[in-house]
Each structure stands twice: as structure tokens, then as C-alpha cells.
Amino acid sequence: MRTMQHTTPSRSALANASWRKSSRSQAEGAECVELARIAATVCVRDSKDADGPALALSPGHARTLTARIKNGELDL
């Protein structure tokens, strides 16, 4: 099995990333997150705080988190 290593991206990499918002987001963006792929890392941030912190996940962890959210397993 091939494992991919991911590292926390630099502030510069986060600032220059191509962030995308969910197509289900409302125009106001009140409760939205944005995603960006930087090398082997999936980054998630609050769309209202572009300069704020970002969560850096491996692709596998990002898929697991997404599935758990969709299944209603997390109290968000």
C-alpha cells in the first residue's frame, strides 16, 4: 500500500491556494467552509475568515470527515 505524506502548508501556500466553496453554500456564506488541495494535503478554512487558521488533513482523513458529516455522525 502506498502512503502519502502530508505536511502543514506554509502561510504563503495557504494564501496562494485556489480555495473553493461548496456549491451548496448560500450567497451570504454564513456557515460555509472552503477547501483547497495543496500538494498531498486537503485544507479546510472558514470562508468568513480567509486569513484565519486552516485545518490540514490527509486525503483519507478528509474523506472520512466528509462522510461522517454527511451521515450526521457529528454534532456540528
TrEMBL record:
<dbReference type="InterPro" id="IPR007278">
    <property type="entry name" value="DUF397"/>
</dbReference>
<feature type="domain" description="DUF397">
    <location>
        <begin position="17"/>
        <end position="70"/>
    </location>
</feature>
<protein>
    <submittedName>
        <fullName>DUF397 domain-containing protein</fullName>
    </submittedName>
</protein>
<feature type="compositionally biased region" description="Polar residues">
    <location>
        <begin position="1"/>
        <end position="15"/>
    </location>
</feature>
<feature type="region of interest" description="Disordered">
    <location>
        <begin position="1"/>
        <end position="27"/>
    </location>
</feature>
<dbReference type="Pfam" id="PF04149">
    <property type="entry name" value="DUF397"/>
</dbReference>
